[in-house]
Amino acid sequence: MRSPGTLLLLLLLPTSLAFKPTDFKTCSQAGFCRRGRALSARAKENPSSWHSPYSIEPPEFLPLNPRQPGFTTSVRSSIHPNVKFVLDVRIHEEGIVRVRMDEEDGLRKRYNEAAQWALIGEPLLSEDVVWKMDEGKAKAVYGPKKDMVLVVDFNPLKITLFRGGVEQVVLNGRGLLHMEHFRTKEDSKPAEHIESEGQSVLQVNPAAWFEGDTQDAFWDETFSSWTDTKPKGPESLSLDITFPNHAHVYGIPQHATNLSLPSTTGPTARYTDPFRLYNSDVFEYLADSTTSLYGSIPLMHAHSAKSTVAVFNVLASETWIDIAHTGKSGVETHWISESGILDVFLLPGPTPTDVFAQYARLTGTAPLPAHWSLGYHQCRWNYVSSDDIRGVQNRFDEEDIPVDVFWLDIEYAEDHKYFMWNKKTFPDPVEMTKDVEAIERKMVIIVDPHLKRSNDYPVYKRASELGVLVKPKSGEGEYEGWCWPGSSSWIDFFHPGSWDFWISLFKTKTIDGQWSWTESTNNVGIWNDMNEPSVFNGPEITMPKDNVHYGGWEHRDVHNVNGMLFANLTFQAAAARTDPPRRPFVLTRAFYAGSQRFGAMWTGDNLGTWEHMAVGIQMVLANGVGGMPFAGSDVGGFFGNPEPEMLVRWYVVGAFSPFFRAHAHIDTKRREPYLLEEPYKSLVRDILRLRYSMLPVWYTAFRETSESGVPILRPQYVMFPEDEAGFGIDDQYYVGSSGLLVKPVTQKGVKEVSVYIAEDQVYYDYFTNHAHRPKNRHITVPANLDQIPLLIRGGSIIPTRERPRRSSPLMKHDPFTLRVALDTSGNARGELYLDDGETYGYGKGDVVWRGFGAESTKGKGKGKEIGTVRISSVDLATRTAVGAYDPANEFARSVGDVRVEKLVVLGLGKKPLSVVLDGGRELEWEFTSEGGVLVVKDPAVRVVDDWAVVVKLE
Amino acid sequence: MHPWLLLALALPSLAALDKTHGVSPSLVSKYLPSTKGSHQTWTCLDGSKEIAWSAVNDDYCDCQDGSDEPGTSACPNNKFYCRNEGHIGAIIQSSRVNDGLCEQECCDGSDEPSGVCPNTCQEVGAEHRKKTDAERKLRKTGSKIRSSYIAYAHKEKKRLEVLVADLVKEIETREKEVERLRDIAERAESLSAAELERKKQSPLYQSLLVHHTALKSLQKEHKKHLEREKALGDILTSLRTGYNPNYQDMAVLEAVRGWEALAGLPHINDVRKGDDGEADTTAEKPTTEDNVEDEGLWNAAKIEKELDQLLKTDHVTLLLEHDQLVGPASAQSLLLDISAYLPDVLLPSYHSFRDSVLSALSVFGIGGGGASDTSAESNRARVALSDAEHSLKLTQDEQRTANEDLSDIFDPDGFGPEGEWKKLDGMCLSKDTGEYTYEVCLFDEARQIPNSGGSGFSLGKFSSWDKAARAGELEYYTRQHYTQGAKCWNGPHRSVELVLTCGTENTLLTVAELEKCEYQITGTTPALCRPLEDEHTKDEL
């Protein structure tokens, strides 16, 4: 039993050293959020009389040209009749609807560039729309089945997307749309008693029923010791988005919460505050909260067994989102943003896969990463010297534990001037990097966005000379804040003048006498941390909102996009080090819609607790929903000293995350795998070897997501969109299309787990080959510390490389093992994608892409019994890639010696009579009747070739 | 013909591997086929399975124990032997076989398919011999110095033995003296005990005892508070220099500012901004003591100096002397009174002086007499006894220390089985790393001293040799642990692992803080240079 003392300590811990709620605002501490929630409260109080004050003029084109993709028209607000707004509605390819609204001829301009950074291009317009007028509304009918209907109600303004006659998404259905117009401080004098001929007359504010009668935090706002001067006054944006027929909503990362988002308001509320999107460096964040974290993707999926849709609300300013699950299996949401135009995309689905494709069409996909970046990353704040790095590498090798990447945190840099080595501890950085690269490993080195304000720092000096640093509220000079190096300034990546400069810094050879990072190599990956941006002495640990960026935009307008630009430029810079470019690796902490194009993210500074381990999985799943699949959480937890059991379990979580890195705070004990006692050390070694053996699966999954946008970690609702019971499950997931299902253990002392299975299918234990048939939709699998709940879905073929190596590039010529897991009808399929893992050669067809199949044919006479199983390999690239593809391409030739060394066939009913290479020799094999496992020894077929192995059972 | 097709024919390329490829010499004899009818078979070394002889080294793992693939990477956790002719054979992990990298350990290139790695055994062997020679030379020189350390230990042993013998004699003498004085004291006391008991009932005496206890308690409390204040000051000082200004913890910042105000220090951020780091932190320190002193009250210095003395006052003597004082004034009372104001060291001589004066006075019929005189007499005897006992104890302590030193010299847990470390006891080595100088006084304490001034932190006191090894083994003496140094803010007590190797000099080479407040310092010492002959004997065994 735990002693009362320990209990007490556990109770005290969170308050004594954890998240400081006083550092960050609640909705009630943010003026515009307060106003937004008050608006919604007023609507609730007057349900019968409430109506939106916004209406539109009937679009002019109607009925002249019914086939145009959309229209622009003016919007009128009954409470501010003199203010002009404009609405633009368009239907794009794939049935994506875009709705934009802006103030027209206002005193100032609302920020309208968020989409420019998020989208990969201007979306193409649909040519397949027919508009018609219908009693105060315009209707667009489109889609291949003509079952999509967009209805725009004129007065009050309401936009509804239907599919098959069912409401999918409704904008302003609850009348909470409100765009606060620009005004002067004079104009905005509140309604007051006006002295008239000695009489006091109460001037009634005609807008009060909607806007309220107070001018809450219109012109300045103080939080803690900081005052936001708000020179532009109120300009917030409120919009209600309702999904009347979808009971689950997902997405809007990044929050430490369940994948299926809980309510924040109404009778079902689990939280009191709305979900917040405001990129923040939150010290020791809570494992269950709606507080904003490091990144923001304003994309929300709404899902039901019949349909999936999504909204992508392209906002770059601080945004709060209230969610209420309504009784009649729908969800009401309310989005409150501080500034910016209204710019909403409606993604029509109808399946999760369609939504992913539609979102990918807008913002792009995660490109194929460098193959080595899927290996294991060993990080710590900090490896203290070149010799420390060498020592860590030696210890890994002595223990034969695979690792691909060693990381350097901020202490490598003299006075935290990034790029500048501390020569006392790193006297030979290039030699050190080359010692790491000698084992085909890589180094990733941190470069943060804050520049030490010191003229002996060439990066700061040049940025200052170029005038590309963020400006303070005056709009003049350089904003100065406090970060790791002390007094710092930040490059304004919105300034085009900063782009070439930043790219030039990463060159490993000096060009034109400009300073560049000659003390690095072209293989070095870059870690972009602190790009929320984190400012230690700023409001909410970030920049003041009235700071000024390029183009005169305030920081408040661009905050959530800001961090993405940093990673974007670093990604470009790292790629541009060589000609032709090679795939760079960049890790970012802050992110936004579109960040998936620029590398990986991790879930920031988590704690070494079971709760954080568990929520890390949910956060990575949510990031996948948000289109950013290359994600992981710090293995072991950034803060704290995890006990060995926790560390072992966390390594499993890491091994089954797209991005797999162990990291630790400077105050923690070292915990590199080789330091563990037995049996933990061997357990972690085995987990790491498992990850490496499965790199073909991961890489193949990355290829798929780079095309489809479908996340790598697939929760139940993505895999089985019609299986209602799975919609809330977020502690197990499938890896890509491989058929691997994993449920990492995230609790102490677990001996077995129950895995949910949505289908009537056989699932095989990955390690024991045991065939499970679900009972009541569940499988119970043993889960002692040396066991991983990992299943292969019947019908899958899993390609692995089983030879332990020190690093992943050293596996390039290793043979493959194929696990052929037959489904209940004796069939299976799988995929393997390979390329050189480094260059963009795949774009011109330098790939090997194989499809594996197993087909059973029934035997003679005996009805259901399988007669033969034919296992084959075919070329998928020829079938799908563009004309340039040559099966004998350069890469394929370079792996011409790679063979398939073993087939493991699971689910054979009885012992085979023979196993023959199609058109060739008899093969050696062994059969274990328990479980029906056939192992075929070394068919010696080349992985690049077409081949078939025929198993005869009778 | 298309080159593509040529390649296709080249598979499998490893088929022709020698069956004993990668087998270590001790196992080569086990790699022979058995003939079973028409075909040859082979049994896995663990006996678990019989396989075709052709399956040995065919790049497919058949045996559970991996023994069928000594020369490939097909079985995990195998060992691969490279013969390295011209050099020394080596064993590598099978994960390094056929991975495309030429292993340094396998200079014959046998870890990769033939033609991939050059055979560099000639060069590597020569290089290795050169290195070994250099190491041997170093050890030879080092071991000479080491023998001088051993000689020193023997000399030291002799010195201590002589010292111990002398001390034994001295103790004997002192023991006798104590016996003699005890005898006198006991006799004197038996005479006066009853009278003394009566006098002790005096309210004045009782009150004095209470005052004494109160004062003693106050002193104890005072000392406790002083220590506490110092500890708090240390904590706050390390908070001030060590806190991370970046976490925006206002409470910490306030604490730092408060401490700076109280201790009169400049704000640390201003200091950090300056080029000299913490240079001026001590310079500006004003006197923290209160300048205003209440008239007549003792100040801190006086308390420090004289309170102990006051508490040592012998109240019984005072009681007796008081009696005389309240009686008729006399020279004796004055003289008796003086003893209260004399420091301990002067007391014995004063007492004898007083005794002679007193006896002279009594001769002339002056001075107190009777019972009270007897009490004073017994008390004096008691003082003399305790003086003698004290001296005896000091001598005994000295003997104990000498004995301990003596046994430590050749204790494998102490200065090594040959006493080779005795010479280094207390030797201070230091390493300047720019910002700090690290000093290790061997077997004593390690310190971190800022080069910008200030006393720095204790990194710990010597606590043990390498606990992972056994005392007496060379490995045991390659690591020293210094633990329980000054506590880090938000961290552990500072500690040092001193990693030593054989070298001709006692010197520190590198300092690294691998974990917060845990330092690894490397260095060399001749004490670790065992003579070369040692190894030969070992090898033969």
Automatic annotation (TrEMBL), chain A:
Q: Respond yes or no to whether keyword Signal is given for this record.
A: yes
Q: Which UniProt keywords apply?
A: Endoplasmic reticulum, Glycoprotein, Glycosidase, Hydrolase, Signal
List, for all copies, the residue spans of the domain called Glycoside hydrolase family 31 TIM barrel: 367-701
Pathway, per UniProt? Glycan metabolism; N-glycan metabolism
Question: Ranges for the Glycoside hydrolase family 31 N-terminal domain?
Answer: 87-322
Gene Ontology terms for molecular function:
alpha-glucosidase activity; carbohydrate binding
Q: Does the keyword Plastid apply?
A: no
Q: Gene3D superfamilies per the record?
A: Glycosidases, glycosyl hydrolase (family 31), Golgi alpha-mannosidase II
- Output the superkingdom of the source species: Eukaryota
Cell compartment(s), UniProt: Endoplasmic reticulum
Q: Which GO terms describe its cellular component?
A: glucosidase II complex
Q: What is its main location?
A: endoplasmic reticulum
Task: State the Gene Ontology BP annotations.
Answer: carbohydrate metabolic process; N-glycan processing
Q: Where is the signal peptide?
A: 1-18
Domain (Glycosyl hydrolase family 31 C-terminal): residue spans on this chain: 709-798
The entry's family comment says: Belongs to the glycosyl hydrolase 31 family.
Q: What is this protein called?
A: Glucosidase II subunit alpha
Record the organism.
Suillus luteus UH-Slu-Lm8-n1
TrEMBL record, chain B:
Q: Which domain of life is it from?
A: Eukaryota
The terms describing its cellular component in GO are:
glucosidase II complex
Tell me which UniProt keywords the record has, alphabetically.
Coiled coil, Disulfide bond, Endoplasmic reticulum, Signal
Protein name, entry field: Glucosidase 2 subunit beta
Q: Which GO terms describe its biological process?
A: N-glycan processing
Coiled-coil zones: 157-191
Database matches in Pfam families: PRKCSH-like (PF12999), PRKCSH_1 (PF13015)
Residues of the MRH domain: 426-531
Gene3D superfamilies given in the database record: Mannose-6-phosphate receptor binding domain (2.70.130.10)
Q: Where is the composition biased (Basic and acidic residues)?
A: 270-288
Signal sequence coordinates: 1-16
Q: Where is this region: Disordered?
A: 270-292
